[in-house]
Fold:
Amino acid sequence: MSRGNGKVHVVRVHKTHVDREGNPREYSSAYLRRTYREGKRVRNETVANLSALPEHVVDCIDAGLKGAQLVPAGAEFTIARSRPHGHVAAVAAMAHQLGFPALLGPACRARDLALALIISRVVRPASKLATAAWWPDVTLGPDLDVADATTDEIYAAMDWLLDRQDVIESKLAAKHLGPDVNPSRMALFDLTSSWVTGRCCELAARGYSRDGKKGCEQIEYGILTDPAGRPVAARVFEGNTADPAAFTDIVEVIRTRFGLHKLVLVGDRGMITSARIAALRELNDDPNTATDFGWISALRAPQVAKLAADHGPLQMSLFDQQDLAEITHPDYPGERLIACRNPALAAERTRNRNDLLAATEQLLAPIIARVAAGRLAGADAIGVAVGKVINKYKVGKHFHYQITDTSLAIQRRHDQIAAEAALDGIYVLRTNVEATELDAAGVVIGYKNLAHVERDFRIIKVDDLDLRPIHHRLDERVRAHVLLCMLACYLIWHLRKAWAPLTFTDEAPPTRDNPVTAAQRSAGAEAKASTGHDAAGNPLRSFCGLLAHLATLTRNQIHFTGTDTEIPMLTNPTDDQRRAFMLIGTPIPLTAA
Structure:
């Protein structure tokens, strides 16, 4: 090749020079050179001296000569699509850690849809149609291949999940209620309700509303949990089902479907009534069932008053030295009665009663004034006016009133009020569990664990999962909807526990020295609530706030200019996002599958 022909390239030369004072100095030069052959010798020709150019300009010349396609700064690539990822990835990671895919059933399209519905209920509770429309907008849809799911497929997946309910709940019962993992052999059960939209739901009926939605049709559903409050099973009933009937149903489920024959069932006084206890006794005495069911419940107010009347076993002197005492009574053979008195509860009930009495008198005052002024006359008319307000606050029994055609006299029943106030703060628990297996304090703690079920109800209905109102019409769809929410609640139970350091959740609730007193928060939880930061000064979030923060961790599809190449790439996670995944024991995944 002759001189003047051939390709050029950039050469960088670095030299070090030591001056007279012994100080080393470095010099860098850049040249544009051409290499050519002259006979058998290879020679170099310097075409240009590039040393005066800025370093980045020299780099561009070098890259261009090597065949790289140069584009303006900032135009090297474009973000073809960005989807929220962190929240669904974290919940999906926890679901896989808990073995949800295997729990739900064999791999199939219906299982993927059911898992996506459960994860979506945790992250963004909404109707099924709104959830399906949301799937393509987050990484959950593409990663679980449900982004194009149709309405019919979603309903079919709900039906598939409901068909597997007994299998799923049996696995959870074995995992959390079995004798090896539940040495106290205790299970909690409670019932609640949620109102229904529309007029065609097969389970809807009018009944006692725990939501305060008077006049609305509703369904009722019960949750069975382990002593710590992990949901294990859910059962749906018609909206006018009584608590004892629901308890009878869950006992049969535990015995026949879960195969558990020795368990202590904990329920409130409206759930485990004397009639239900009699039925449990018959079941335990039946040699064909081989069951040994125990119970922990509470007596109703009239039953407590009977124990305290006529020098009965329940006397105030029992609480002179302690807040609980064990008593017996022939009306409860084979049972232990644990009498408790909570002074703080007594003061609260007294204050509340006085407020309600005063509020009722305030409602009655205008009626009394109308009668005195002659604007309201006639015993019947006066009685109707009084009847409209006398029991608005449920304290009408504490008033004595005399009505004539021209007068109205109302006064408090002080003796009756004093008799009721004497039992303020007192409740009596009943159980057939032997003292050698569970002492009096353990009985109280077991009964108070029902607060865990109430917490699950708040998660399901209000705080996180937004189960209500019920929009479904068919019996099977309503039951599947409640099952989905129960499984989502199971997920949230574990997520809240794992993420306690990042949220306001009490990480180490103190053990109560006195089981009768109200639960207290630890000093760490008090500091969290007052400062909004953890011990290291990091800001805290609510559970929903943490999920919202995780959603800012997006997965971007990067398209490189001038090519057909696209690659997925996550945004740089924040410290809290890294900690959230670390606390559930998984690195930040690129996919939610």
The longest strand covers residues 24-38. The chain has a mean pLDDT of 91.
